[in-house]
Design a protein that fits this description.
By secondary structure, the protein is an all-alpha fold. It has four helices and no strands.
Length: 111
């Protein structure tokens, strides 16, 4: 399996990256108090009204960054699991588990 990114995959990654960036920016503007993009941009650079700076800088920005980190972590975890399943001969390649995996015994619980 090639580690390089195919052209079709690169296009998909670019589109998804743009969508994530747009949703990230949109999440800074949308909420109980709707802020126009100019107010969000001004709040991000420390200008604009104090209310907008508090809403964006202390509530929405940390929440959006956390959502981005959690989503990225879950995506990497899913990718890692799919690579592990392929290496073990899991269901993704249609061959079933390898000999080593079949011979492993599950830990027994003591009840």
């Amino acid at each position: 399996m090639s580690v390089g990114v195919r052209r079709r995959d690169a296009g998909l990654i670019a589109i998804l990256s743009i969508a994530v960036a747009a949703l990230f920016a949109g999440s800074l503007a949308v909420g109980p108090v709707l802020l126009p993009p100019q107010a969000v941009a001004a709040a991000l650079v420390g200008q604009g009204s104090e209310a907008a700076r508090i809403i964006v800088g202390e509530i929405r920005l940390p929440r959006a960054i956390l959502a981005l980190l959690i989503g990225g972590s879950l995506g990497l975890s899913a990718r890692s699991d799919s690579l592990d399943a392929k290496a073990d001969g899991g269901p993704l390649d249609g061959r079933g588990p390898s000999e080593e995996v079949r011979n492993r015994q599950a830990p027994r619980s003591h009840m």
